[in-house]
Specification:
The complex is a heterodimer of chains A (112) and B (114).
Chain A lengths: L4 E3 L2 E4 L5 E6 L6 E8 L3 E9 L2 E5 L6 E5 L5 E5 L8 E8 L7 E2 L3 E5 L1
Parallel strand pairs in A: 2-11
Antiparallel strand pairs in A: 1-3, 3-8, 4-5, 4-9, 5-6, 7-8, 9-10, 9-11
Chain B lengths: L3 E2 L4 E5 L4 E3 L2 E2 L6 E8 L6 E7 L7 E2 L2 E6 L4 E6 L8 E9 L6 E2 L3 E6 L1
Classes of the chains: A mainly beta (112), B mainly beta (114).
Amino acid sequence: DSGVTQTPKHLITATGQRVTLRCSPRSGDLSVYWYQQSLDQGLQFLIQYYNGEERAKGNILERFSAQQFPDLHSELNLSSLELGDSALYFCASSGYPLNEQFFGPGTRLTVL
Amino acid sequence: AQKITQTQPGMFVQEKEAVTLDCTYDTSDQSYGLFWYKQPSSGEMIFLIYQGSYDEQNATEGRYSLNFQKARKSANLVISASQLGDSAMYFCAMREGSGYALNFGKGTSLLVTP
């Protein structure tokens, strides 16, 4: 158990819908990262927050957004969902941003 | 351009044997970090080992060691005394410079046989 929690574990929805994925980092970790794992793209970095502020952005679509709240939990919002958004979405956290990242169990999103 | 290359899509090893999983990387930064993660069939990503570019010694964590050859830009994972529970996907990743994101390779699937 990495100490990072993600909810829900599984999510099935339809094209065009909007979903919210939630992540709670390890106790004391200020950095939260979001990654997407799909069969065709592999593991891709989406976005990073540090203590409530966006710190780095990767291959995140404009339809996707994220935020980190004062209690340090983070949410990833995915809107206007397409079939290709079906993937495993991971949240990871680290203490100091350059330290190793510990991953949550992931949210498996299926868009039908 | 691919930053992390894992050339072995699949590997087999017999229980109790050692196995090396290959990873080469591409960066022009002097400061970078290399990571290995394990992903069992259940899907979670488990951190195994870390090597900093300035670390002179190869990193070791229990049965895992990282064979770091800076001039060749390789960071191979060595698993000693393989166990059935080591069967999983293994990902090599790199963090460059002062960036925070991890760039992952495509992974190597390891199967440990009795």
